[in-house]
Write a structure and sequence with these properties.
The structure is a single chain. The chain is rod-shaped, with a radius of gyration of 39 Å. 26% of the residues are buried. The chain is α+β, with helices and mostly antiparallel strands.
């Protein structure tokens, strides 16, 4: 009895599979394939977006780091300059400098520093970046600068004058006096980012404004009473 009942049932299933099984298999394969393709596309898109985001962040991070480092270094030097107490024994500049005139000693650097580093060096030696108030002192320093030229090299010497706080409001950093006398070269001063005055050997030591962060020679001075 069981065999008779099972045979028709099995025959119907067998017939159904024979008739529709291939279609069902193809449909299932198509559905699985479509889902696989969609999944792969989604994963590729997600990874690409993540990679682009990382690269963008990395690029911006590199630029940001360079700018931040420069600003941090400059601000650190400015803060150190503000906080340093000027050494009372001003004989250090007079010991290392060769020149004395009108109760002042002058030191011409043989190495280069940016303006902030130069000012810090002068202060630590009991002096300050040179301040030039009149034509006589200017001519004297120009002659000394010329004597200090390295063969084949036209040096540039930072002074203490700058307009860092207010553009074109030139002041002497040590005395906080406004610049009254000047000896600008032709076309000087330049606009924007050149905020520190130097004697330029390429222009007979006329005054030129330079970026304060550029590396130049410099002149320290100290009062020698």
């Amino acid at each position: 009895m069981e065999d008779k009942e099972d045979r028709p049932r099995q025959s119907r299933i067998h017939l159904f599979l024979r008739r529709y099984g291939r279609r069902l298999f193809i449909s299932a394969a198509l559905i699985v394939g479509c889902l696989t393709v969609v999944g792969i596309c989604y994963i590729c898109f997600a990874l690409g977006e993540k990679s682009t985001g990382k690269e963008g962040k990395t690029s911006n991070s590199i630029l940001g780091t360079e700018e931040e480092d420069l600003m941090t270094d400059t601000q650190t030097l400015i803060n150190e300059l503000k906080n340093i107490s000027v050494i009372k024994d001003n004989t250090r500049i007079c010991r290392i400098g060769k020149y004395k005139k009108n109760n002042r000693c002058y030191y011409f650097s043989s190495t280069t520093k940016n303006w902030f580093e130069a000012q810090l060096f002068c202060k630590k030696q009991g002096g300050y970046l040179v301040e030039i108030y009149d034509k006589k002192e200017n001519l004297y320093l120009k002659r000394l600068a010329s004597d200090n030229q390295v063969l084949g090299d036209k040096n540039v010497y930072f002074t203490g004058c700058n307009d860092i706080e207010n553009s074109y409001s030139w002041i002497w950093d040590h005395s906080k006096m406004d610049m009254k006398f000047n000896d600008w070269g032709t076309g000087q001063p330049n606009p924007e980012y050149e905020n520190c005055i130097a004697l330029d050997g390429e222009d007979n030591f006329k005054w030129h404004d330079y970026p304060c962060t550029s590396k130049q020679h410099f002149i320290c001075a100290a009062d020698n009473f």
